[in-house]
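Hi V.,

You were right to ask for the full record rather than a summary. Here it is.
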Amino acid sequence: MSTHTQIIYQIVFSTKNREITLEPKSKELYRYISGILKNKQCHLYQIGGTGNHIHIITHLHPAISLAGLVKDIKLASSIHIKTNDIFQNFKGWQSGYGAFTYHSNEKEKLINYVENQENHHRTKSFTEEYIDLLNEHRIIFEKKYLF
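Predicted structure:
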């Protein structure tokens, strides 16, 4: 029997110290991350973010671990950014990440949410957004570890 999965992940991580060092619609960075996902046979639905964080909506290939994928994305994209001098003030990614699962019928809503990050963040900071995600998914956390 074959392996079948239908798990949509929203992966979220920020720049080191949440510094605004990215361009909100960095097509080069997003294209590069898309290539990593494609090489790992993961399906990318949407990628986007602002100057200090990104969101990735994806389906993972069953043989790929979430932690390994995020590690590979962060490591390879950091090297790519620094080697090609894409963002001059980029110092790296934060050490952790958030990953949240969704039912397949929420896919369009998630895609729209990530497409509209710039508008969304006119009224809400990344920290507020991240705390909302943790609460929505009933993840227990201590605020002192978020900063």
